[in-house]
Request: fold
Amino acid sequence: MQCEYCGSPLSLEDEVCPHCGQPNKHAQKHLADMRRYQGEFESTKRRVYEKTDLHNQVLVRLIFLAVLVLLSTGLFWLADNVFSIQRSLSQRKADRAYEANAQLLDGYLEEGNFQAFDAFCQANYITSYEGAYAAKYGRAIRASSAYVQLMNQLEEDVFLWDASEAVRQKWLGDAFDYFYQSLAYEPYAFTQETEDPLVAQALGQMEVNVEQFLVSYCAFTPEEAAGMKDLSLAGRAVLLEQKLGGQQDER
Amino acid sequence: MKDKLIAKCRDWFQNGKRHPILFVLDAARIGMCVVFLVALSHAAGEFSYAFDQGYDEDELYYKIQYGDYSQLTEFVWHNRAQGIGEGALGDYYAVADYYHASLLYHLCKDAGNEPLAEHWSSKMQDAAQKLGSFAAEKEKIDSLLAGQKSP
Reply:
């Protein structure tokens, strides 16, 4: 292009003519346009960066939230199921060691250590209705739990507490009821429970122990002790009140 | 360091160019952090309760002090079933074993079951030798079991 004042050649970058010093209106307009375009470009670029930055920040926060939600849900689920998991692990461990455990349990039953038998079964979640142990030990598992409860109750009432208290006699009556019911259960068919002679002997021994305790420490006659099994709840309650209440008075 | 943190927090609150959704998400993050900590402590509590550590020395001592030998026996067999060996609790286990064996000895003897009575008598003697600092409990248990018998 040429200067409109002196006709010298000019470029678009020359704001004034280098020869006559007059302003180059085309260049000024061009430079103004270029500055405007630059400004718009920078502004657009800034908006794109801000939007991308916002999306990134939102995405990071959402990922963080999602991870926290998953972890929290997992922890709550774990807390709710920890007993099932622990029980399942214990049962599997007990099933794997069946041979050794069965020897131990047989030993407990033979010597009449029903406290140890019950504690072992409870600690390893050995139940009478599932697992490898149910078929042989089902009845013993049910009865030993009831036996231990009853004997603990009897020992505490006779040696420790005031057995004449009505509430303690009610508990004792319930414990007797639970014990005799557990002895009366038939073997479970669904676990293919068998009649094991050692288990049958153990159940007999439990009954003998309970009856002998009543005779030795509760002033029952042998006939009264043996008859407890056939009494009703009310009948047992009356007899227990007579014997234990009277014994407490003597003390 | 503290001043930098305070300045950063001030800028964070006062920065007018922050999109509202970021405030919402930040509040949600703080809330979820609290929920996560609650979940963590709840899970830790349930775990420690589920994986039973058995009865400790204080609990066993309390039972002996109170004369509640039947529960002591229950606690000791519970510990044994959990695999908690005698170790430092040997004396406590011996008291429970002595009581348990004595009771069964008396019951078997009174019922006329001599073989089993002898079995429990030898268990009594074994336990009596391990009573250690609780040697005095032997007499208490003997007088309890023999003395409480019905005439």
Chain B touches chain A through 51 residues (CB under 8 Å). Residues 2-50 of chain B form one domain. Chain B has two domains: 2-50, 57-147. DSSP finds seven helices and no strands in chain B.
